[in-house]
Each structure stands twice: as C-alpha cells, then as structure tokens.
Design goal:
The complex is a heterodimer.
Chain A lengths: L10 H5 L5 E3 L1 H9 L7 E2 L8 H9 L5 E6 L7 H9 L4 E4 L4 H6 L2 H15 L3 E6 L1 H5 L4 H12 L3 E4 L11 H14 L10 E6 L4 H12 L4 E6 L4 H6 L5 E4 L4 H12 L2 E3 L7 H15 L2 H26 L3 E6 L1 H13 L3 E7 L4 H14 L5 E3 L4 H11 L3 E4 L4 H5 L5 E3 L8 H16 L2 H6 L8 H5 L6 E2 L4
Parallel strand pairs in A: 3-4, 3-5, 5-6, 7-8, 7-9, 9-10, 11-12, 11-14, 12-13, 14-15
Antiparallel strand pairs in A: 1-13, 2-16
Helix pairs in contact in A: 2-16, 3-9, 6-8, 9-12, 13-14, 14-19, 15-16
Chain B lengths: L3 E2 L6 H9 L5 E6 L2 H13 L21 H6 L2 H14 L4 E6 L1 H6 L3 H10 L4 E5 L7 H19 L10 E5 L9 H14 L3 E3 L8 H5 L6 E5 L4 H11 L3 E4 L6 H14 L4 H28 L5 E6 L1 H13 L4 E7 L5 H10 L8 E4 L3 H11 L3 E4 L4 H7 L2 E4 L16 H27 L2 H11 L1
Parallel strand pairs in B: 2-3, 3-4, 5-6, 5-7, 7-8, 9-10, 9-12, 10-11, 12-13
Helix pairs in contact in B: 1-2, 1-7, 4-6, 8-17, 11-12, 12-17
Classes of the chains: A alpha/beta, B alpha/beta.
Chain lengths: 471, 454
C-alpha cells in the first residue's frame, strides 16, 4: 500500500502557535511574526480539548469511514457527545484496553477492533486513533494497520493523536488531516474546471449545506470534504482548480493538495456576517470567472435582508460584547457584531499562530480596538476574572463556556449549536444576542451560584498563573 | 473485556469525577492529559441525561493537562504546582486528586504530591483512576471508599451512633440517569417514617454529610456497586446494611424495604403504616386513573429494558408486578462483578416462558439481540432509539448514555418515581401508537388535512 508518511510537527514548532497569553496585542503579534513568541505555560489549568477529542470530532463525520479509538474505554466517551450535539456519533469502536493490555501489549485487541469495525460498518476507510496508553507503551500500531489493510482490502490509516504531543488542542485536527491527506489523496487524472473544493472540518451540516447551495447557485460544483464527504470526495479533491479553506485547520489539507497535486489553496475570511459572506462569494466568483453570477446573487441576498439589518442594528447598537472562540471564528464573530453596531470590548482566542496573528493584527487596526488580548482555550477561571472586570453587556462563547459566565449574572449566548455561515445565520445570531440582553430572568436567578473562585484570585491580574517557561 | 462499540459506562476517571462533583465542597484535580477531564464534561454532563453540573464541573475542572515533556520527564512537579494553585483559586472542603492513564503509566508519584499539600494543612486525598482499570461504576466505588477512608483518617474519637441516621450507597451519578431524583425520592420516603436520610450526593449534600457516615445506624445499597462499601462499613463500625442490587420502584417494593429496615433498626411502626397508607391512597388513585388509557389503548405489552443492573431489575419488576407488562428481553450493561451475576439471575423477574438476558455494553450486540426478540416497548439508552425506530417499537430513554431528554430531578424510585415511570411509559406507548396511526393514514386524509390548514 502507500508508503509510510511522515508525521507532522506540532503546531508550536511548525507555526509558532501559543496557547497562553493576556496582555497588549502589539508585542505579542511582533514576537509571533518574528517567530520569537515565548511558549508561556500555565501553573494552574482547567480542562480543554486535546488531540484525541479534536481528531475524533473531525473524523467522525466522514460518511464512509469507521474509527477505532485505540485506548481505554473512556477515550471514546466523546462519541456520545458527538451523537448528542451533531446528531451523528459516526461509526466508532473502542479497542477497550485494560490493565493487562497496558502491560502485555495491545496488538491483538487492535486487530480484533479493526476487524469488528469492518464487520459492523462495512466502511471504505478505517482510522485508528491512538491514545496515551499505546503512545507511552510504544505499541507498534503501524504494523497492525498495514497488516489489516492488506487483509481487509481497504485503507486502515493510523492517526497518531496520542493526546499529549502539543499544548494546542487543534493540533489533533492537523494530525488527522495530515494522515488523511497523505494516505488517501491520489494524484489527479484530470482537472475539473468547475469543481471547487470546500474543506469542511468542524462545521455543522446546515452550514455546509448552505455553502453548498450558495456555491452551486453561481454555477460551480462544490466538492465537500473531509467532513460530510466520503473517500470518493477525497479522491476527487485533486481534480479541482482551487481548494477553499474555512477554518484554520483546513490549511493542512489545502496546503497538501497545493504542494503535492497543484490545486491552488486559498483561505478567505469565512462567510460569517453579511459583509464577509458577500466578499466570500465574490472572491470565489472572481477565482472561477463567474463574477456576474456571484454579484447577482450577492445583490439579491443583501437586498433581501437589508431592512432586517437596519432593524436589528438599531437594537444591538452600542452593546458591549465579549467574544471567546477559535481565532478565525471569534474574529469573524467580532466583525459580525460590529457590523450590526455593537462594540467588542474583549476577546479570548483559543490559540494564536503565525497565520492567525496577521488576522488579529488587521482586526485590531481596522476596528481600532485597544483592549488586552486573552489567549487560552477553556480556562474559564481567567475569563471569569477578565469578564468580572470589564463587565460586558453580553458574552458570546463556544461550547460549555456560556453557563459559567451566565452564573456571574452576565447574559451569555453559545454559538456552538447555531449555524454561523451566510446571511440568514448572521441575522439569526444577532436576534439571539438581542433576546439574551432583553430577557435576563434566568441569568439573574443564576447569580445564586455566582463564581466558585476565591476573591483573592478575582483580584489578581488575569495572567497571574501564566508564566514564562524556563527553557 | 473485548473491543466494543461505543462503550457506555465510560472509565474509572469519569466515574470518579461525576461522583466527586456531586458532593458540595469537593474540588477534583485531574492529573492527566487535557482531553481526559474534557471527556468527563462531554460524557457526564452533556451525554448523560443532559444534566450539566453543580458548583464545579464542566470546562471549569482543574486539570494538569500534561504534555510530552511531562510524559518523558515525569509530571509530578506539574501536579504539585497545580495542587498548590488550585487551593488558592478554589475554596474547597476536600481537594480530590485523580490520576489518569498517562501519569500512572509513567509512574508519577501523585500520592506524595497529595500528601505534601495535606502536610500544609489542606484537606486532600488521592485516588488512582486510570481508565484502563475499569468503568465508571468502579470509579464511583473507589471514590466513595477513598473519601470514607479520608474521613476515618481525620476522626480521632470513636463515632457514636445517631438514632435513625441511614446512609445510601450504590446509586451512581452520571451513570444512573435518574440518580439525583432517585436519591431525593428516597430521602422523602425515609423522612416520612422518622428516619434521617444521608443520601451523600446531589443537591444540598456536602462533606458534612460524609463525615456522618460512621454515625449511621444502617446502610442501604441499591446496586451491585455499593455492596463492598457496605461490607467495609459493617466490618469497621458494625453498621448493619441492606444490600439490594436494584432500586425499589412502586408501592410493593417500598413496603418490603421499609419492613426490612424496621427489622434491622428501631423504626416507629405506626409511622411506617401511616406512610404506606398515605402513599397507597394517592398511588392507587392515580393507578385507577391510568387504567382507562391502559385498557383503551392496550398497554399490556411485552417490553425490554437495557441499562445497568439496578435500573433493569428495578424497572422490570415494577412494570411486571404492578402494571402487568411482560418482560421479554433484558440487557445488563454495567458489567457487574462475576459474583453478582448469579445474584442478578436470581432476581430476574419470573414469568411463563423464557426471558432473554444479555450481559453486554456493545451497541451492535444489543441491537442484534433486540432485533431477534422483537418487543413492543424498548426502555433503554438513546443508543437504542434507532433500533426501536427500525423495529417499530415504542421507545423510552431511561439509561445512560441519554441525550434525548433532560433529566435533572426526576426519579423512578419509590411511589412518586413509580408514578413518573407510569406516565413516561404510557406516553411512549401512546406516541408510538400515534406515529403508527399517522403512517397508516390513507392518503386522501393527509390531503384533506393540508387543505383544512390552508
């Protein structure tokens, strides 16, 4: 089968990613751009996404794939969440390692799990996601995957997630996408001049369906992968003229296609908000010479929601908003709320790297922001500290972040379950924000809980537990 | 244990976190890779009855988030740093240090790190909970045992017994979908006969309740997962116990339980009688109301229950012995200790004809089993929803993982719990019937309805 591909260096080394910071933005951006950003670490942490959970989140939506989580039972608990939240837990099996396996090795169980996955789901691809037990014991996963791949006649792809390689949770996306690209994308046989690759990684299905329709209606043929796509979509990907990246992590697969298969990769600002959606569509239209179709559609759609925008802006105008999320998403959301007249007064970004740092700089300059930037995934304690100081009118955050902030008595909205892309999504989100500020009855009552943190912590500087690593 | 599809009872760490966060004042400190505590949130709070968390939990769980450096050079110093700072950031009555797979495999001395902070005067205790040791039920059991040992360690005097105080064990947060409601129901019942319930977990329960454990006159257990704890307390404090392996649902089971309690400790017999009488008036009245729907819609069907031992046996006994339903296929998913399997078999409901029983937590095995049995009503986890839909069975989600209902303080235990279960089962059967009616409607009827709406 395919020769063994090389692993991908962790984000810290590859793109100078950092995951802990609070302070003025300029010195940080300069340091990251010069590749001199200090790897600050926290001396107190709360939980966050890791490589295993990220990789599984991404892989579970490949429609004809099965995933074997090679580890103890608990490592695959995330499936129930994926089921609950995305409506599809995918075809997932745990190799269910116990103490004996952690001592005696786990190759037999892995083979059994792969065969069982094949029997249960009849997939076209099987991914094997590794966890700390196998990583620490240096079990030979690759020899099993090669053997089973030959036996079953389908690609069995190891994804060395391990769970502790990087401090950046999103590194798991990179590992999964890199494995996916290098194992599964064959050279193109032809070029389809209308095909546009849309690299979907962690979006909701409704969002991708929306983009699919948008792109189709300007006369192009969207090829969606790896999420919501199958092995065929991956194989076809090399035939496109251009790959469009949506979220940061799509870069891995986009750049692979560009360097190995000559498919041009672009990553415009994602279509979150009215202006951004219009420019996203115009950008793609320009790329493929479908300018007139694109501009017609943009005109049509913006005219449709013109009155709505004006009505909503009058209500959102002047509200102070705090936003937390992955860099690209959070910045896009920040632009969205500013577009509707609100004012962003604080940002928590999960992580920052050479690519996203430029985006942050542009946004700070364009929007004339001068607040301190917070970098940290999860780390609710730091956000509680910051938010208690700057007292936003509303907090907009990701999964699991809204409730602890609402318990401080601050209206909060979680965007994770909402659709984000396109015109309708933008107005819907703004309506949610307005509603949350208008009716605070639950939020006021939740103040019963308050903050679980000590006063001494809340009085300290938010970066008190972020230290410069001694190395 | 062989590989399996979507293991439903999580891992020891997840059980320990779910249990400890259900005790007011306990702050878990997870020593593991970042995703371990995250998966606790995703599975315990989001995919387990969508139940969220109390004062601490979710994304706020303190976790050392160890990386490659700590795996190579050891992570003990990282844990020391984390513990030291946790006591500064979060006020707690007990700091509960839990280690996951990675630090245990590389041999971090988490115990020594915990002892260090204890020497500094902070209440702290350590428990080894790597996922490869076992499931969440095991995590529950070890957590309870560890905290009891911590309390024993702290007390210098021999505890005196408090009259009427009763501890409750075996109902597992996060895994038993109705844990909080069941404990609240049980609390009410015990209070009604003059006893003082010490339910230990959930709303209003703190370390103060745990400190009273040795003072109890009696321990009650309601699953295979609290028996060892009760035996341990019997050895240590001569506290007698009643070791049930399933939850008592409905009038009969509670009556038996209360009588059994009165044989072990001194309870006011008149209060018991009064409590049962009061409850039976209400219970029987409601049951009478239910009878109309029961017969009109033909609710006397065969059923299947999929879940942990305590729920499967509890629910099937109630549905059979109170509602006259017919158990056909039971699936026990909590992988109970071998010694308990024989006891479980002994307690299986007895009817004419064979009841199929499967011990498994593999969804595919369960699906195949259910497809063979073809029952009218399936009570299981949300994972069984599709199986039920495909076979046209009525479906009610009652066991973990459960994400199509929000269950916070609803319980199935006791009188009120039995009535809750009646309502839920009736609703499930009714909905399935309406669904079927809808599918069987002749086409012109659909068109006419649409026409009317216009």
């Amino acid at each position: 089968m395919t020769p063994e591909p090389k692993g991908i260096p962790i984000q810290e080394r590859r793109i100078g990613a950092i995951g802990a910071y609070w302070g003025p933005v300029q010195p940080l951006i300069e340091a990251i751009t010069k590749k001199q950003a200090a790897q600050r670490i926290r001396t107190f942490c709360q939980t966050k996404w890791d490589e295993i959970t990220s990789a599984l989140q991404l892989l579970h939506q490949i429609t004809d794939a099965a995933v074997v989580v090679h580890g103890a039972k608990g490592c695959s608990s995330v499936k129930h969440f994926l089921n609950a939240f995305y409506g599809s837990g995918g075809s997932l099996i745990s190799s269910n390692l116990n103490e004996n396996d952690s001592i005696m090795g786990s190759d037999i169980k892995l083979s059994e799990a792969i065969r069982r996955a094949h029997r249960y789901y009849n997939p076209n691809i099987i991914f094997v996601v590794t966890t700390p037990i196998v990583a620490i014991n240096s079990d030979d996963v690759q020899s099993v995957t090669v053997k089973l791949s030959n036996e079953l006649g389908i690609p069995v792809v190891p994804v060395f997630a391990d769970g502790f390689k990087s401090k950046i949770g999103a590194n798991g996306y990179d590992i999964a996408l890199h494995a996916l690209a290098s194992y599964l994308i064959p050279p193109a046989r032809r070029t389809n001049h209308k095909q546009v690759n849309i690299v979907s990684t962690t979006e909701h299905l409704v969002d991708i369906e929306y983009l699919f329709n948008l792109v189709s209606s300007i006369g192009l043929e969207p090829n969606i992968f790896p999420q919501f796509g199958n092995l065929n979509n991956l194989k076809k990907s090399a035939e496109a003229l251009v790959s469009i990246g949506l979220r940061s992590e799509s870069r891995i697969i986009g750049e692979y296609l560009e360097s190995e298969q000559g498919v041009h990769f672009v990553q415009p600002i994602p279509p979150i908000g009215i202006k951004a959606t219009s420019s996203w569509l115009t950008f793609i239209g320009d790329l493929y010479g479908h300018q007139s179709e694109a501009s017609l559609l943009v005109r049509l759609k913006t005219t449709e929601c013109c009155a709505e925008i004006e009505r909503l802006s009058s209500k959102l105008s002047g509200l102070k908003v705090y936003i937390s999320g992955a860099a690209v998403i959070a910045l896009s959301l920040a632009n969205l709320v500013e577009e509707f007249g609100a004012r962003v007064i604080g940002l928590s970004l999960f992580d920052l790297d050479q690519n996203t740092a430029k985006l942050v700089e542009e946004n700070y300059n364009n929007n004339k922001w001068n607040f301190n930037l917070h970098v940290g995934e999860g780390q609710i304690f730091e956000q509680v500290n910051i938010v208690s100081r700057i007292k936003p009118d509303i907090y907009l955050g990701g999964l699991g972040q809204a409730a602890p902030i609402a318990r401080l008595g601050i209206p909060a909205v979680c965007y994770s379950s909402m659709s984000l892309y396109g015109y309708i999504a933008a107005t819907k989100l703004v309506k949610k924000l307005i509603l949350a500020t208008q009716n605070k009855s639950l939020v006021n009552r939740l103040a019963f809980y308050g903050s679980p943190y000590t006063d001494s912590w809340l009085q300290k500087s938010p970066n008190w537990y972020i230290k410069q690593e001694v190395r | 244990m062989s590989p399996g599809e979507t293991p439903r009872s999580a891992c020891a760490l997840q059980g320990a976190v779910a249990t400890s966060t259900a005790i007011g004042g306990v702050i878990p400190i997870v020593h593991a890779t970042a995703g371990c505590a995250l998966q606790c949130y995703l599975s315990n709070c989001l995919a387990s009855s969508t139940q969220g968390y109390g004062h601490i939990g979710g994304l706020s769980l303190p976790s050392t988030n160890i990386t490659e450096k700590h795996v190579i050079f050891g992570g003990s110093s990282r844990l020391r740093e984390q513990i030291k700072n946790t006591v500064r950031i979060l006020d707690g009555e007990l700091y509960f240090v839990l280690s996951g797979c990675a630090p245990d495999l590389v041999g971090d001395d988490s115990k020594a790190m915990t002892e260090e902070i204890r020497e500094q005067g902070y209440p702290a205790v350590y428990l080894q909970t790597p996922g490869f040791l076992g499931n969440a039920y095991l995590g529950y059991q070890s957590t309870v045992k560890t905290i009891i040992d911590f309390i024993i360690d702290q007390t210098t005097t021999k505890p005196s017994k408090t009259k009427g105080l009763v501890n409750v064990f075996g109902i597992v947060p996060g895994q038993d979908s109705f844990w909080q409601g069941d404990l609240l129901q049980l609390g009410k019942i015990l209070s009604s006969v003059g006893l003082t319930p010490n339910t230990l977990l959930g709303a209003g329960q703190t370390m103060e309740n745990w400190k009273q454990i040795p003072e109890a006159e009696l321990n009650l257990v309601f699953s295979p997962w609290g028996q060892d704890i009760a035996m341990y307390l019997e050895d240590r404090y001569e506290t007698p116990y009643i070791g049930r392996i399933y939850i008592p649902i409905g009038l009969d089971e509670i009556e038996v339980l209360l009588k059994e309690i009165s044989q072990k400790i001194n309870v006011n017999k008149q209060l018991i009688e009064k409590s049962i009488n009061n409850a039976s008036t209400e219970f029987n009245f409601v049951l009478g109301q239910f009878a109309d729907a029961y017969f009109n819609y033909d609710f006397q069907v065969d059923f299947s229950v999929i879940g942990p031992t305590s729920q499967v046996l509890g629910i099937s006994h109630f549905l059979m012995n109170t509602l006259g339903l017919n158990p056909k296929a039971l699936v026990i998913t909590d992988n109970p200790p071998l010694k308990d399997v024989e006891i479980i078999k002994h307690f299986l409901p007895e009817i004419d004809g064979k009841i199929g029983v499967l011990f498994s937590d593999d969804s595919q095995e369960i699906a195949i089993f259910l497809n063979q049995e073809r029952v009218t009503l399936i009570l299981g986890s949300t994972l069984e929803k599709d199986v039920a839909a495909k076979s046209g069975s009525a479906y009610l989600s009652i066991s973990n993982p459960l994400w199509d209902r929000i269950i916070l303080h609803r319980g199935y235990l006791g009188y009120e719990g039995g009535l809750n279960l009646i309502e839920d089962v009736g609703t499930a059967l009714l909905r399935a019937r309406h669904q079927l009616d809808y599918l069987n409607q002749p086409k012109f009827f659909d068109e006419r309805t649409i026409g009317l709406e216009k």
